[in-house]
Hints:
The chain has helices spanning about 15-35, 35-40, 55-65; strands at about 5-10, 45-50, 70-75, 85-90. By secondary structure, it is of the alpha+beta class. It has a four-stranded mixed β-sheet, with helices on both faces.
Amino acid sequence: MNTPKMYVLVRRDLAETYRVVQGSHAIVEYALRGDQERFKEWNNGTVLYLGVRNEQALLLWSEKLTDHEKRFCPWHEPDLHGQMTAIACIDDGWIFRKLNMA
């Protein structure tokens, strides 16, 4: 099995620095509420920030990850009226292979 990586999907319609902040929130959300065994296995290893177009794309990814039974944690930003701004997922990465870096 491949070493798991933390994949962080962030919205490209947000400013670059804001993407980093939102993705960091999603990582912490995973640390608090995600798959703890997987989090320990990841062991603060590789983190990849991947870009998606907007909130609608994140919502579609949420559905796709759910359909594939992937454990993930979204982040909803209070300052943006609860919009979803990022998703964190520890995985082998095949599902994210067509996404580009943020």
